[in-house]
């Protein structure tokens, strides 16, 4: 399973990576600290799951979510955290 994790807080990214890695070591996690880079990862990786923070630099989590809904069919693959 491939996951794109987008959160501007380094500690939270590391915590989520650790928790998910402990659940299943075959999970691949690709992370970003801003919305623009996060969108790039989504298009490059084509993940099974996207975890988005609501407050991000450059594009907010809401803007990334809305863009993905309008341009792809990722609605069922997105988890939003705040």
From TrEMBL:
InterPro entries (alphabetical): Bact_response_regulator, CheY-like_superfamily, Sig_transdc_resp-reg_receiver
Source taxonomy: Bacteria, Candidatus Dojkabacteria
Gene Ontology process terms (BP): phosphorelay signal transduction system
Keyword Cytoplasm: no
Entry keywords, A to Z: Phosphoprotein
Pfam families reported for this sequence: Response_reg
The protein's name: Response regulator
Sections of the chain in a coiled coil: none
Modified residues (4-aspartylphosphate): 53
Span of domain Response regulatory: 2-82
């Amino acid at each position: 399973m491939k996951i794109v994790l987008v959160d501007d807080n380094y500690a939270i990214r590391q915590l989520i990576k650790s928790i998910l890695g402990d659940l299943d070591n075959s999970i691949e996690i690709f992370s970003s600290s801003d919305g623009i880079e996060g969108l790039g990862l989504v298009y490059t990786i084509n993940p099974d799951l996207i975890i988005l923070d609501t407050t991000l630099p450059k594009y907010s989590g809401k803007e990334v979510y809305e863009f993905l809904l309008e341009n792809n069919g990722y609605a069922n693959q997105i988890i939003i955290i705040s």
